[in-house]
Amino acid sequence: MTAPDPTSNPTPGRPTALWLLAFLLLLALLQLALLPLLGGRDLELAPLFRVDSLGLLFGIAWTLTLAVISTPLARQGKRGRLGLYLGSVCLGFLVCAYAQNMASLAVGWALAGVAIWAVHNELLAPAPTNGSLLLAFSPGIVLAIMAVATGLPAFTPPTGGVAAPWSPVAAMGGALAVVLSTGWGELNSLRRAADDSRQVPNTPLTELYALAAPYILAKMLVAAPWQPVGAWLLVLLGMLTVLSGVYRAYDSRWLSRTRSLTYVLIGISLVGFGIAPGSPLAAAGAVWVMLAGLLRLVLHGWRWAQATALLAALPGLWLVSQAALDTGYGVVAALLLPAFVLLAWLITSYTPTRSRALHWVGAIPFTLAILAVAAPQLILEALVRPAVRTMAGGVGALTGVAVDWGVGMLMRTSQGTTPAALPSTGIALAVFLASVALYWLKQLAGRVTRPTGGDAQPE
Amino acid sequence: MNSLAGFSDWALALIPRLFLYPGGLAIAAALALALFTSRRAPGTSVPRHALSLVANANILSLALAWAALSILPIPGMAPLPFPVDCFALVAVVAASLLFDLLAAKEDHRDEIWPNLSIVLALMSPVTWQDGLMPDVRDQGISSYLAGAAVLAGLVGLFGGMRYGWSSAARWLAWWGAAFALGVLPAGAWGLATLPAALVLGWVARRLGWGGYATLLAYLLGLAALATALPRLPG
After folding, report:
1. What is the phi/psi pair of residue A227, to 5°?
2. Residue A289, number of CB atoms within 10 A of its CB
3. B143 pLDDT more than 50
């Protein structure tokens, strides 16, 4: 092993990283500027793109997430083309976010997958093989087959009448694309672990690819609902994914445990989008959980990142649980919370791993996560409700959930009963008051118990 | 009702609950329970031991358990201006353990399993309900099984309380949640389960039967879930 040349630039990829960051932030700003311009309306750019609330929400969220996670990656590269690949990842995600039909979605998804493969090819040793290139293409291929088989359906709600539901085969095709998107990074990691005894982590890009995958189902719901059999299969697959994620958390390896959270979030999203045609609460919950997963990625490496993302996902889980009860999936509602808390306890329990401090950039997602827990009504009204409204072809209006701005959220039935209530802001107030009281009690007790005079121990 | 009125109504109802009854009383009782269950260093007086428990408390974890104790919809008490469902109650107590585990300097994963059995037992009645709000109607055999599972879980948990005051507060919060959510019987019979769980927990701790009690809690919880299946709507 040769010693590094002291005259060489220690961070050769720094200019690339800065250019990439500027490019991604500009893209995010451009999308943000569309919000007031559109004023809640959709913009048809047929036959390829359609700008709506759902696309804008995830387009902005993915771009900002990429800005945070890809800048450190760009610094590691020695060649400028790494920046090009990372930019292509973002481009692929944006094509997906604003896809007007299944063909655009397939192209965007394949582009994102292959660009991530190319980034890995640049950064990781040993480099991915051609076999893993095929795996990276596979979700896009599945979507392309679906596009041809279903006659290039457009992701637009029917202008009148009721949309013909997606067949169970189409629903399973969407789910297969989600599973392949999740499994690609996993298989790649396993192969490299087999080649090299060291535990080489994937880049966070594969996690983003996996966490974004349920968006395929959200896009399909913009056009039409599932048939009951398709919905049932999606719920079954989602619960199996949740349980397999929890099972993985038993693994003592830290890498494996953090990855299990991704599985569980994807599983909950599958359940949510599966139930969504029966209850729009489920669609809201699924969108919520997907956003919480992005928070974890942005806070990656920080000791409190897992706990923060887990807490931020809880209101989404609450929405999905109530939706499961509304649609007759009582066992799903009863099992989701125990499975989720078991995972939370397992992945946050003592791990002898070093953790970095929270970067100043992390303050923004951390604040968002705190808002999601302490004032979920803000996130629901500002981000989630407009996104659910976009899925008008397959999901009804989100009228069941009401908001009390000062206390929290609650469900209302047409008979006027309240089947569920989550006073998050109220509970946050209780926790705050209790924390203040305990802080002073602790200070007081510390003063009394502290050794004084000759008994004092040096610190 | 505007948002400020909703918030002020909640705050006015919360403060006496938090600092007096049930939260204030329960958090003091939890300290007494922690004194009883934690190991005292030789030569340390009881007041000094109590002060050391307070000084070493995990603030966030304990505050979450205290908040859960304060918002319990206890039968007979004036309800809060905004209802609380079983998901919220269970999630708050579970988050309390999350922060204890996060701050732990050694592996305390053995405390997870009895807690999980209680979560499973508390959520199993949801299966036959229309919503997440507590339903205090008698649900027959499923209800009894869920109640028994919570009691067995509490007995199993008694032996493994590692985090001092916050563990004890969580133990009480689990019992209170089971009582308030209708998993344990209402009235005197339900109240009698608290001393019963304490005595059985103490015996199990002395005999080292905590693991068996936890296993029993899982079996009863799964049985409660299974007996509720035929009642699924649709």
Report:
1. -75, 160
2. 29
3. yes
Q: Assign B104 a pLDDT band (cuts: 50, 70, 90).
A: confident
Nearest to A130 by CA among A113, A115, A117: A117
Instruction: Please provide the average confidence, as pLDDT, over all residues in chain A.
Output: 85
pTM assigned to the model: 0.92
In the three-class reduction of DSSP (H, G, I as helix; E, B as strand; rest coil), residue A356 is classed as strand
Q: Which of residues 59-98 of B touch A (CB under 8 A)?
A: 59-60, 62-64, 66-67, 70-71, 80-85, 87-88, 90-92, 94-95, 97-98
pLDDT at B4 over 90: no
- Does residue A250 sit at the B interface (CB-CB below 8 Å)? no
The identity of residue A449, as a single letter, is: T
Note whether A430 contacts B: Cβ–Cβ < 8 A.
yes
pLDDT of amino acid B14: 96
Does A411 sit within 8 Å of B6, measured CB to CB? no
Q: What's the distance, Cα to Cα, between the start and end of chain A in Å? A: 43
Name the residue with higher pLDDT: B106 or A220: A220
Q: Which residues of A touch B222 (CB under 8 A)?
A: none
The rounded distance, in Å, linking the Cα atoms of A115 and A112 is: 5
* Average confidence (pLDDT) over A355-366: 69
Judged by phi (left if over 0) then psi (alpha if -120 to 50, else beta), residue A328 lies in left
- Cα dihedral value A173, A339, B58, B206, nearest 10: -160
- Say whether residue A406 is in contact with chain B using an 8 A CB cutoff: yes
- Tell which residue, A346, A133, A127, A139, has the closest CA to residue A256: A346
Q: Does A456 touch chain B (CB under 8 A)?
A: no
Highest mean pLDDT among A31-45, A129-143, A385-399, A422-436: A422-436
Asked if residue A126 has a cis previous peptide bond (ω within 30° of 0), the answer is yes
CB contact under 8 A, B87 and A422: yes
B-contacting residues of A 299-318, CB under 8 Å?
303-304, 307, 310-311, 314, 317-318
Q: What is the ipTM of this complex?
A: 0.95
R_g of chain B, CA atoms, integer Å:
18
Q: What is the pLDDT of residues A316-345, one digit of tens each?
A: 999 999 999 999 999 999 999 999 999 999
Q: List, in order, residues 6 or more apart from B1 with CB less than 8 Å away.
A: A404, B9
Cα angle value A155/A159/A160 (rounded, 5°): 130
Q: Are strands A43-45 and A49-51 parallel, antiparallel or unpaired?
A: antiparallel
pLDDT at residue A352 is higher than 60: no
Average pLDDT of span A389-396: 91
Task: Evaluate if residue B105 carries a pLDDT over 80.
Answer: no
Interface test with A, best of B44, B92, B123, B167 (most A CBs within 10 A): B123
Say yes or no: B14 contacts chain A, CB-CB below 8 A. Answer: yes
Give the strand order in the sheet containing A408-411. Answer: A401-404, A408-411, A421-422
Check: CB of residue B153 under 8 Å from CB of residue B117.
yes
Contact B6 A406 (CB under 8 A): yes
